[in-house]
Amino acid sequence: MKTSLVVIPTYNEAESIQSILTNLQSLDCDVLVIDDGSPDGTARIVRNLGIEVIERKGKQGLGSAYRTGFAIAIDRGYTHVIQMDADGSHQIKDLGKMMEWIGSSDLLIGSRWVKDGQIANWSKFREYLSKSANIYANLLLSLGVKDITSGFRIYTSELLKKMEISTIRSEGYCFQIEMTRRALARGGSVAEVPITFIERTHGVSKMSAAIALEAVVRITAWGALRLFGR
After folding, report:
1. Rounded-to-integer distance, Cα 65 and Cα 33, Å
2. CATH number of 4-227: 3.90.550.10, 3.40.50.12780, 3.40.980.10, 3.20.20.140?
3. What is the mean pLDDT of the chain?
4. In the chain, what are the domain boundaries?
5. Partner of 203 at 20 to 30 A CA spacing, among 36, 39, 158, 177?
6. Is pLDDT of 98 > 90?
């Protein structure tokens, strides 16, 4: 068995998933897809490629998908768990670069906002939204991580065990912020590796007003708890 498992949540990613899974074969890792009942046949494509897929009924959320995948990785004895998107925004060549850093930190984050990190094909509004979220989260939480919202990560299983991931409650993009906060609270070391994030060319973004609101509410609540020493 390989030591690293890539966990990829999917919902209607039929146009991009085959290319990603095919390219992942060049890396020394196993792959697990968590599909939330994609009506476009994403799960069928994954099965036909011989990749393991967990099919769930209906959209249960990004955070729920990762909690499921992480728990499976820990139970099976993988030493490292990789999370990445299925829409093509995370590059396989960047993952290869990140894997070279395995062993240096408990959590490796593929970062857009460190030196040599880049984004491609984003509107100015999306760039502003992402930077603002990171600035706001750091202002209230003082996490010291430039790209707290990045979903391109490598965790050690030992850190995930300490983090008690079953108690993580966020479901949208705020999941990344809560996981970073918990990792640091449990004494985990964090390093950021520069990546080039490319906006999806297929499918529809999962970002919504509800997801953004969840992040604002939770960050504000955590900030208040920090202010009052709780």
Report:
1. 9
2. 3.90.550.10
3. 92
4. 4-227
5. 177
6. yes
Parallel, antiparallel, or unpaired for β 80-83 and 153-156? antiparallel
SS3 assignment, position 64 = helix
41 DSSP assignment: S
Q: What angle (nearest 5°) sits at the alpha carbon of residue 66, between those of residues 64 and 72?
A: 105
Distances (CA, A) of 88 to 39, 50, 151: 19, 20, 12
Beta strands in the chain (DSSP E): 4-10, 30-35, 52-55, 80-83, 107-111, 118-120, 153-156, 190-194, 196-198
Strand partners, 198: 120
| Tokens standing for residue 13 | 């990613």
49-87 pLDDT per residue, tens: 999 999 999 889 999 999 999 999 999 999 999 999 999
pLDDT, one tens digit per residue, over 165-188 is 999 988 877 899 999 999 999 999
Question: Is residue 90 a contact partner of residue 110, using CB atoms and an 8 Å limit?
Answer: yes
Query: For position 130, what pLDDT does the model report?
Result: 86
Q: How far is CA 7 from CA 74, 83, 208, in A?
A: 12, 5, 23
